[in-house]
Amino acid sequence: MAKGRKRDSAAEDDTGSKEKKIRRAMAEQDPEPVEDVEAENSEEEAEKLEGVDMAPKRMKAKRNDGDSESKLVGDPVPMEEAKQKWPRRYQGKERTNSPKEKETETEDEDGDFQAKSHYTQAMVEGVVFNLNDDAYVKAEDDKPDYIARIVEFFEGVDGERYFTAQWFYRAEDTPIKDLANHAQMFDKRRVFLSEIRNINPIDCIVSKVKIAKVSPNLDLEAKEKTIPECDLYYDMKYLVPHLTFASLETNTYRQDSEASSTISSESGSSGEVFPNISLRKSEMSLLDLYSGCGAMSTGLCIGAKRSGINLVTRWAVDINSYACESLKLNHPETEVRNEAADDFLHLLKEWDKLISELQEYDSSGGVDDASNDKDESSDDSTNPSEVYEVERLLGVCYGDPNNVKNSGLYFKVRWKGYDSDEDTWEPLDGLSDCKDRLMDFVRDGYKKKLLPQPGDVDCICGGPPCQGVSGFNRYRNKEDPLADTKNHQLLVYMDIIKYLKPRYILMENVVDILKFKDAFLGRYALGCLVSMNYQARIGMMPAGAYGVPQFRMRVFLWGAHPLERLPQYPLPTHQVVNRGVVPKEFGEILVSYDDIKESNLESALHLEDAITDLPEIENDESRDERPYDGEALTKFQKYIRLNREEVIGIEGVTTSSLKSGMLFDHRPRKLNDDDYERVQSIPKKKGANFRDLPGVLVGSDNIVYLDSTIPRPMVASGKFLVPDYAIKFVGGRSTKPFGRVWWDEIIATVVTRAEPHNQAIVHPQQDRVLSVRELARLQGFPDFYKFCGPIKERYIQIGNAVSVPVGIALGYTLGQACQGLCGDHPLTELPFKFPDCLALEADNFECEDVM
């Protein structure tokens, strides 16, 4: 007999509303900003829109073959007791539980079935099963038996004998599914308890199974020692909303920041909060991997501060030197490392070895540097061109800083008698004669936490690049996506988490990780965290729903130590102009309100809300900073102009290069003469683009073609006014080339290239592309946030950034979780809106769960 799964009504209502919201989406979402052009391959687009079913497998129990001996045994439960325990079974409905109806049961079948009487035991094939026994349940042919906890026995009004199963899921039954070459990450004995229950005939029961409940532990070896003799074990529950893997006890908390923890007394209330964990530490440390210019960590710190937690970005890592310069300029308190994440992980491991060596060195009383034994006369007689003395060590890295194709551990050396121009990177084995200097450097770095050690990091955030899933990559590895070097950083990100063991993890990525190859990379990331015994959940959030005039849908994966609260997703604060289609299969993870509550949100922001106060500039504007030349015209502009000292959660002091009250980066990418002439010819009206240029006609099929009755117009250089690439782009159907954005519109996604050739990025009323500052505002960067590098590099930093208000919203829910102030529900309402929340003097806020 086929049976469906059952969810709680709140989750079901929430999911339904999400699917309604999805169906209202109006246009195709812009792709990952690594390639900011429209898709030209219809096959690839079809794959992107197809999506993947992320819901768990439905448990369809099947009767045992043949004449199965099954019956309810013992005396019935007294009627009054039965009605008290299972009131929905005795509602007096004229329900017969006919076979036809049972085959088409809804998710609410638990309440539909009416009972004649309840029992505490049943016998199947001579074996007695009691309430709360665990059992294998017959599945469809060629499928492994299901696993269930028996939570109810009863005889229906139709005379049939039933049991209610609360299902356990194997990893492959959840959205993690079968990870093919990486399935070994999960212990085959490990299962997950769900809250899904449904009713089946008792002759679906196959046999008993011994399932042990195990305490969660990030130390997998220690956990293995605690597993008793059993067939299976579980240490987490799986919940359908937002594909949540959570600890079984919701009222546990960590007493300190060390690995060892204790569990508070059980009280039974799922909404109970933890003690104020913020009392444990004066601040929380954040490591920002693939940090770019620091947008996500900046937002997280602002949001956490708004919740009462002082979250500080202690370390940041990125391979782009200009992005690192920007982050360091705006966050002088952060140790910013311009290196590959792979090298950073190697460095952490080598640094740990040096710390151990330092402890041995100090315990032995230390050894003098051999060079210190030499007297001054010896030094004077030595040719300085032949002997160099180390004055001190300035830095450390792992890699190949000298480009000699020899990666390893290197130290930056200041030589005695020489200035900084003569500093060099020297390998560790080249410093064997200056042990004291080496140990001094390690000792100082250890005290200052130059590099994090396991247990030092409270939260790791980052968006590992996964260009291998892009629909524009024609050579994607569909058989093993993780073998693609363009997806390798996801493995590195997870390896760093495994090594440092932070309390919390937040991973951001493009929606394509849930579309390519049956969502393999998304499932792998989720599976990695769960295999490391982290709680986890996944959600999709559009930036426009949090107070910026941009759609920008992104995926966010939360992870939490098993003894911490799992952070929630913040519900939208603003209506959003939909600029993307999300397949309905993703309804479970879209962060959204239902239709009724959505109508009470703040109105969607548009371009005019964000940039109308900025002074007019020309195509060749070259000033990096200038006065505003006017007052703010909207509330958004008022708050986005706040000085650094007026914004909450911003650490460090203002440097001399960040003059208060000045407007930074209001410069556009300078168009070449041909493109500038083309842009000048685009009418200053809504919807204007290359189709408005002379000589361009549009057919009834919406495909452009040239007017053959007139000479083809030229620009001054002799090239065509309307380039061939504009006519051919997306088969002649696109309106994006040389398109003007308009005041009452939004940008679908701020991308990394300010090219007008294949996107609408021309200013509404000026003959130029949107400036660096204008796009920064669309991403929610406060105006004091200054960017470094050539103009092209500044656009890249902004296009690759996480929208700041999204980071703020997530930072607030992180802070709530740290203090144990959140419930079990995956969604919560924010008590503030962007950009008001930036202000240091804003009112105190309280958070409200959405149930």
From TrEMBL:
Residues 7-19, 62-72, 91-103 have a biased composition (Basic and acidic residues). GO terms for cellular component: nucleus. Residues 127-249 form the BAH domain. Keywords: DNA-binding, Methyltransferase, Nucleus, S-adenosyl-L-methionine, Transferase. The keyword Cell membrane does not apply. The active site is at C466. Residues 388-453 form the Chromo domain. Its EC number is 2.1.1.37. It catalyses: a 2'-deoxycytidine in DNA + S-adenosyl-L-methionine = a 5-methyl-2'-deoxycytidine in DNA + S-adenosyl-L-homocysteine + H(+). Belongs to the class I-like SAM-binding methyltransferase superfamily. C5-methyltransferase family. This is DNA (cytosine-5-)-methyltransferase. It comes from Morus notabilis.
